[in-house]
Each structure stands twice: as C-alpha cells, then as structure tokens.
Amino acid sequence: MISQKIKSVVLDDNKLSRTILVNGILKNCPEIEIIHECKTIKSALNCIVKHRPDLIFIDIKMSGNHAFDLFNNLEIVGLKKIIISSSSDYAAEAFRYAVTDYLIKPVKTKELMEAVKKVQYELILESAYQDNQFSGKKQEVPSPATSNLVIYHRKGFDVVKLSDIIYCEASTYCTNFYISGNKTICSSRNLKYYEELLPSGQFMRVHHSFIINIQHVAGYSNHEEIMLSENLRCSLSGSHKHDFLHLFRKPE
Prior knowledge:
- The chain is 31% helix and 33% strand.
- By secondary structure, the protein is α/β, with parallel strands linked by helices.
- The strands form five sheets. It has a five-stranded parallel β-sheet with strand order 2-1-3-6-7, sandwiched between helices.
- It starts with 5 loop residues before the first strand and ends in a 5-residue tail after the last helix.
C-alpha cells in the first residue's frame, strides 16, 4: 500500500503563484507532503529522479518551457501529475500524458481537494493491484485473483476482465483497448504502462503498436496480419514474427 502521505513536488517559476498553491495544499490537503518546491524544469527533473515523489503539481507554461518538456524527459513510470494553468488551451494535449487533473487558475479549493483525492485513489488502486495481484512482478499465467485490469481514462477508470480484452493499440500517448462485445476504451495511459501490467502468459507484443490477447487469436495470413475475435485484425511485425509463429507451431 502507499504511504500515509503523498510525497509531492510543486513546480512553478512564479514565486507568488507557487506560494499561493503551496499554502492552499497545506491548508486543505492533509494527504499531501510537499518535499520540494522548484522553479525550473531542470531542477524539477533532478528532484524527481533523486526523491521519487508520488505526485507533481506543475504550471503548464514557465519561461518559454512547457510542462510537456518535463514529461518528455521523464522515464519514471507511475508519477502522478496535476497541471495548473491560466487557460484550458493545453488540456487535450495534457491528458495524452496521463495527467490526473487539469486545474484552472485561480485554483478553487474544492477542485484542488477533488484532484488530490483522485491521485490518492489511483495510488491505492495501483498499489493494491500490484501487491495483491502481481506481487510486484508480471505473472506468466493469470490466476482468478489477477483476472481484472484497471483502465484509466479521462472520465475515471473501468475495471475489465483480462479475458475480455482482445487487443491493445498504441495511439500517440494513449492506448485504445478493444473489448469483447464491440466495446472500445481510450485510456490516458500509454501502451508501455499496460505492457508492464499485462501477464505475459496471456498477452503478447506483436508489433510496436499492438499487444494481443493470445486467447483471441483466430488466424494468421501471409500478409503479416493476425486475425482476432469479432473480425478484428492487427499487424505482425518482423521482429515479433518468430515468437508469434513459434507459439502456434505444429506439435512435433
């Protein structure tokens, strides 16, 4: 489980704006522990790498830089992000980076508290999911306890059965899930995030953009195309062809 406090970094190059936000957090969000305040992308990056916080509050624009400049240089999986902005101009792009919330200045206390609750809930879910279902590692074969996956999206999250996932498709910074029953979910997490969670005994990377549920494979064509349930198809790349065909090789 996560620690009692959510370790957080605040990044804003405007001292007054940063102070207002910090005071608002300290006054209204007892779940938060502010471990550092930063005023540049570089200092924030160094701080995140060194201290591994759970969450960063970040202004969208700072002295010619964007919050996205920081996100593009981060290799830490699972860092939660709450963006603070004076406008909604960058909201659509922000959610491609799997931000938890996007707050407009001046930040309302209620919205700040709700955003922090979202982060807290996401951390609890992820911690429980990894501890109880995967024990910190990918499993080769899922057991009944590992039968569900939490899929985050802009409106919250869905819990789906692993057996119902036909395949996943990378879409820029997001992931499209194709689910049994002609259902699709566009997740705000990237494909790599889910690759680290999906059990390798059931799911297989077959292309830079695709992960398939091997239980839903219906066929294969010499045009490097995999046929899946419900008339869905995806491409098979040359680098994954051997492993895929070996999985379905004829018994000797």
